[in-house]
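Internal QA ticket QA-208
Title: Verify multi-chain structure generation after dependency bump
Assignee: T.L.

Test input:
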Amino acid sequence: GDSVTQMEGPVTLSEEAFLTINCTYTATGYPSLFWYVQYPGEGLQLLLKATKADDKGSNKGFEATYRKETTSFHLEKGSVQVSDSAVYFCALRQGGSEKLVFGKGTKLTVNP
Amino acid sequence: EADIYQTPRYLVIGTGKKITLECSQTMGHDKMYWYQQDPGMELHLIHYSYGVNSTEKGDLSSESTVSRIRTEHFPLTLESARPSHTSQYLCASSKTEVNSPLHFGNGTRLTVT
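Actual output:
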């Protein structure tokens, strides 16, 4: 079945450092890909998405590019802030499926 | 700002009690979901609904039940809570369109003693 693999955390960075969280997927066809963020004590929020190959999703300085050749959707940010500390989830959804398949989440802590 | 509301935010109850976790959304979404999030953060789909009078079981077997009598309301019920039910429960909704993103509530953190 479909699956998502994220780099294991936790990840700890200093403020203004460059962030990469790796995400690869296994799926048939052409799923849509998503990054969600969960701040402490809250539910998940959609951070960005891409619906077809070579699409780049971006939001709040975060970016991810849908790479079908490497089945990847890595999350990047050029300069992280303390307020970016959260858990980040990569996810996919097949066309016509009700299910959003999540990775296991990567906890990011940014220190001042 | 949340368009999907879950109550209560926190609940501590004793074993054997019946509980209902409430979820309401104001976006007019037909599809709604319940996810269980374990302490290791992993998310498991336990129930979903295509619309009124539709309920389906998800990937993770759950002793909970759901109902969908109104579009905006998707409550989850545990008839007899056990310590193994201790978890965070997240409700979500989405549009009908293929590959629409899910919108999540802030969750209910349930502790069964």
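Spot checks passed. Chain B touches chain A through 25 residues (CB under 8 Å).
Status: verified.
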